[in-house]
Amino acid sequence: MVGKPAPRIPTSILYPPTMNRDSGIDQYLVYNPHYRTIICRQHGYAIAPGGMIRHLRDYHKIPLKTRQALNTYSESLDLCAVDELQIPSEPVDSINGLTIVDGSQCNLCMEKGASSSIKKHCRIAHQWGEGKVPIWTKQRLQTFFPGTNCKCGSR
Ligand SMILES: [Zn+2]
Ligand SMILES: [Zn+2]
Fold first, then answer.
1. What's the gap in Å between 58 CA and the centre of ligand 1?
2. How many angstroms is it from 32 CA to the middle of ligand 2?
């Protein structure tokens, strides 16, 4: 049996029925129908609608044909705009594909981010000072779009 590929997991488990089963899309992208976002597995963040072709060209060393197939797939999906994304205020089960980081959440306005930036935020926005009881909570976070506030708490 030399040269025969290892047995594969049945594709019906890996791919929703609408997906091209032989395309291998799942190794690159994961679509989340609840949040209507497409997530790049390798980078661990979501790609904004219309941004796929550029993301793949700039950040992935994969053949043009594969990039085109991934782009065609992403264009076939129902994706919401970045500013329409409904971020839950409460922590949710971790979202498949998004990187999880340890961060903090402000108890007063629910702002989320790196612990150092939330501490700074509390100082500036809420007049918190060193020596006072912290007004933030440590929280695992997942960010949909880098550089934005599209973050949700992860259980
Ligand atoms: Zn990527
Ligand atoms: Zn705050």
1. 9
2. 29
Please indicate, yes or no, if residue 95 is contained in any of the structural domains.
no
> For residue 59, which ligand has an atom nearest its CA?
1
* Residue 145 CA: distances (Å) to CA of 19, 35, 40, 90, 112: 24, 12, 11, 18, 13
Q: Which residues partner with 38 through β-bridges?
A: 31, 47
Ligand nearest to the CA of 117: 2
Q: How far is the CA of 45 from the centre of ligand 1 (A)?
A: 8
Indicate whether 125 and 78 sit together in one domain: no
**Cα 106 to averaged position of ligand 2 atoms, centre (Å):** 5
Asked if 122 and 149 sit in the same domain, the reply is: yes
Taking only the tens place, the pLDDT of each residue in 22-59 is: 558 889 999 999 999 999 999 999 999 999 999 999 99
66 and 32 assigned to the same domain: yes
User: How many independent structural domains does the chain possess?
Assistant: 2
At 27, which amino acid appears? Q
Instruction: Count the Cβ atoms, other than its own, within 10 Å of residue 70.
Output: 24
pTM over 0.85: no
Are 79 and 28 found together in one domain?
A: yes
Structural domain range at position 45:
24-83
